[in-house]
Design brief:
The complex is a heterodimer of chains A (268) and B (422).
Chain A lengths: L3 E11 L5 E12 L4 E5 L6 H9 L6 E6 L2 E2 L7 E4 L11 H5 L1 H5 L4 H14 L15 H14 L4 E5 L7 H18 L2 E5 L3 H6 L3 E6 L4 E7 L2 H5 L4 H5 L2 H28 L1
Helix pairs in contact in A: 4-5
Chain B lengths: L1 H21 L25 H17 L18 E10 L6 E10 L20 E6 L4 E3 L14 E5 L2 E2 L5 E3 L3 E5 L5 E5 L13 H14 L6 H32 L1 H14 L8 H8 L3 H25 L3 H9 L4 H38 L5 H10 L3 H29 L7
Parallel strand pairs in B: 2-3
Antiparallel strand pairs in B: 1-2, 1-5, 4-9, 5-6, 7-8, 8-9
Helix pairs in contact in B: 1-2, 3-11, 4-5, 4-7, 4-9, 4-10, 6-7, 7-9, 8-9, 9-10, 9-11, 10-11
The chains are: A alpha/beta (268), B alpha+beta (422).
The complex binds adenosine-5'-triphosphate (ATP) and magnesium ion (MG).
The site of magnesium ion has 3 residues of chain A, from α1.
Chain lengths: 268, 422
């Protein structure tokens, strides 16, 4: 069976002072191969924790992750991760960063070079092949991170606020790029973001999570990602349904934030 | 005091001259707008002109106060008196008129033999005297010895150059100070001036001459290059073994709880112990030969390298390790392609510190005991008051230490250009 199943995941962190944090409680979700899921939620609701569990960096206290019929038990090349920033290897050139995955598999140099060259073309960094990654701008670095992940041909791509550190214009270009790559490669993608607009644009499915304990609050199925492929994203944003959904979700998150604040004040 | 004043004066004057009048490449970029520069290294750049003037000033002061031949005479601080000094003394004796006679003193450089000048005896019962005194020294002059009435017979000196003098008192003349001891003997101390005596501080050219001399003739049976080469060899050997053991130890401590727990107390205890404090123990255990010195330097480098490697490993961003895992890297591959390259900048920083400490330690160890080496050279020289060799040695030690550091920095730039860029 192909696809990603998140089965009843709970995650509790035991703190050194004897207390514990329930970061996730009974989170379940099925993603079909090739679906694009965006995840929204107030800070601390367990988005990163969920992604880390799917990636295999964390073992859940309850539940399991099943990918294409087998259970996930640790990080693996079938699930690639794009971090917010700073996860590139600064001691390698752009080319070596992108070619890292194939190299680890022991792929022949000629094949590897072909993949690297192709992906650098796709992300528009052909001329920066030999540059050191610290010589690139933040947006370029994220494109390298994306290319590095794709070079490894993962089944699932996990992104934790990959565009969070970018300026508005670069961010919009990157959003188009993500949509284009999603359509061309047909990968399953989970993307965490803090921006409601970004979640609407880059989510065939959109998950709103609620905090304490982290859980799924509401799920949407949206047409905007399909509409946005190869199109001007600003046009998509003008869609009346887009504005309506945005306001609805913003209100939802505001309510959650207020509840958290209120609880903190009551506690204090 | 005067030296400090001159120094401050040169600092201030050159600042205004360079900044206001010449304005070499006044900064017009945005850093010139920065006013708060704390913690922002980019805002303060070292001014080359200031560095050059600073070094020249040091040499200038050195030359001024040693009467260096490299400087024109008018820049010299007043020197010590040299040549023939004269003063009169007036003596009294029971039943005689007071009589006056002249003392002529040849003040000569101390390294030269000198003979008292011939003088005529004169007319009165007090006869003219002559004597020699070395520059920067003083000497008792028994002026009554050739007089018709000596001190033993009741004569006593009552005035110098017409000014009255009593036992314990003094008279300042143009040539220096004439004092009188409690027993009534005159003591002449020629003017010292403001310059330093060569055995305290030799002139720059004397040090240079000594350098050339020792470079050609050698010192204590070894050439200069052998002395410096031995010191360098010890540093490199000690550092090499220290790194050889320390880096893997640091890696192990960074990667394994057990290693960390086992070695942490040892490393943390040894780190604050200055290597110099180990010299006595190393001498007891390993003797004063080469082995002892290399063991000492090994110990000096070991902890620094272990700590540097440890922090290099534990400093790796977890997201980089995670990224490598999800790109399909195995543990060994992560070690090789992520952990090790990520730790190199820290290791290089450690290596720079370790080389500096080793260089300092080797010189100190050689001061204690060695047959060859830069430290031994200055220690032996100081026993014979060869200040020029001591200063030459210190300058060479400084230059080599600086050279080592520059070399390490250069290696760092070439080998780990990504340092601080993650
Ligand atoms: N390693 C950990 N140890 C203890 N508590 C943790 C750990 N990681 C996360 N938590 C806790 O779990 C909860 C969820 O954290 P998580 O990082 O998943 O939130 P998030 O939704 O990604 O937040 P943000 O939007 O700010 O990134 C938080 O309360 C956090 O304090
Ligand atoms: Mg997060």
């Amino acid at each position: 069976m192909s696809g990603l199943e998140i089965e009843n995941i709970s995650m509790r962190f035991d703190l050194p002072n004897g207390t514990s944090v329930q970061a996730l409680k009974n989170v379940s979700l099925n993603l079909k191969a090739g679906q694009l899921l965006s995840v929204l939620g107030p800070s601390g609701c367990g988005k990163t924790t969920l992604l880390n569990i799917v990636a295999g960096f964390l073992a859940p206290t309850e539940g399991r992750i099943v990918l294409n019929g087998h259970e996930v038990r640790g990080p693996d090349a079938e699930r690639g991760m794009v971090f917010q920033q700073g996860a590139l290897f600064e001691w390698m050139s752009v080319r070596d960063n992108v070619g890292f995955g194939p190299r680890m598999k022991g792929m022949a140099k000629a094949d590897k070079d072909k993949i690297v060259n192709h992906l650098l073309d796709v992300v528009g960094l052909r001329d920066f092949k030999e540059k050191a990654v610290y010589e690139l701008s933040g947006g370029m670095q994220q494109r390298v991170a994306l290319a590095r992940c794709l070079a490894n041909e993962p089944d699932v791509i996990l992104m934790d606020e990959p565009l969070g550190a970018l300026d508005a214009l670069t961010r919009e270009k990157m959003q188009s790029l993500v949509l284009k790559l999603w359509k061309e490669t047909g990968k399953t993608i989970i993307l965490i973001t803090h921006s409601v607009e970004e979640a609407l644009l880059l989510g065939e499915r959109l998950l709103v999570m609620a905090p304490r304990p982290g859980r799924i609050h509401k799920e949407y199925r949206l047409p905007f990602a399909e509409m946005g492929v190869g199109e001007d994203l600003r046009e998509v944003k003008k869609h009346p349904e887009f504005a309506r959904t945005r306001e609805e979700i913003l209100g939802m998150i505001w309510d959650m934030e207020e509840e958290i604040m209120g609880r903190q004040e009551a506690g204090a | 005091m005067i030296v400090l004043l001159i120094y401050v004066a040169v600092f201030v004057v050159s600042f205004f001259v360079v900044m206001k009048l010449i304005k070499p490449g006044a900064r017009k970029d945005f850093t010139s707008l920065k006013t708060v520069t704390f913690g922002d290294e980019s805002a303060v750049r070292s001014n080359r002109t200031a560095s050059v003037i600073s070094i020249l000033t040091l040499f200038l002061l050195w030359g001024m106060f040693t009467g260096s031949a490299l400087l024109p005479k008018f820049l010299h601080a007043p020197g010590p008196f040299e040549g023939l000094a004269r003063f009169d003394y007036t003596a009294e004796a029971p039943g005689r008129e007071p009589a006056t006679a002249t003392v002529t003193v040849l003040v000569h450089p101390i390294e030269q033999e000198a003979k008292a000048p011939e003088v005529e005896a004169g007319d009165g019962w007090a006869k003219n005297d002559s004597a020699t005194v070395g520059m920067w020294r003083s000497g008792l002059i028994q002026v009554d010895r050739n007089d018709e009435v000596t001190k033993a017979d009741g004569a006593k000196v009552v005035a110098v150059n017409g000014q009255p003098i009593v036992p314990g008192g003094e008279v300042i003349t143009d040539f220096g100070r004439v004092g009188m001891s409690q027993k009534g003997t005159l003591n002449f101390e020629p003017k010292k001036g403001w310059q330093m005596e060569p055995i305290w501080l030799p002139a720059p050219e004397a040090v240079m001459a000594r350098l050339i001399d020792i470079a050609q003739e050698g010192f204590r049976g070894s050439t200069l290059w052998q002395h410096l080469g031995w010191s360098l060899f010890r540093v490199i050997a000690g550092f090499f073994f220290g790194a050889l053991v320390g880096i893997p130890l640091g890696y192990a401590m960074g990667l394994s709880d057990w290693f960390r727990g086992w070695f942490d107390p040892i490393v943390e205890f040894m780190r604050p112990v200055p290597p110099l404090a180990l010299i006595p123990l190393v001498i007891i255990w390993a003797g004063i030969g080469e082995a002892g010195k290399i063991i000492l330097l090994f110990l000096a480098a070991l902890w620094i390298m272990a700590i540097a490697a440890r922090s290099g490993v534990s400093g790796v961003k977890i997201s980089k390790v995670h990224a490598a895992y999800s790109l399909g890297a195995s543990k060994a591959q992560i070690m090789r392609y992520v952990i090790i390259p990520n730790s190199l900048p820290d290791i290089f920083t450690g290596a720079r510190v370790a080389m500096g400490v080793c260089w300092g330690t080797v010189v100190a160890a050689e001061l204690v005991a060695a047959e060859k080496g830069a430290g031994m050279m200055i220690m032996v020289a100081s026993k014979f008051q060869n200040t020029d060799i001591v200063i030459m040695g210190i300058i060479l030690i400084g230059i080599i230490g600086f050279g080592i550091d520059m070399l390490m920095r250069w290696a760092e730039r070439v080998l780990v250009p990504w340092k601080g860029k993650g």
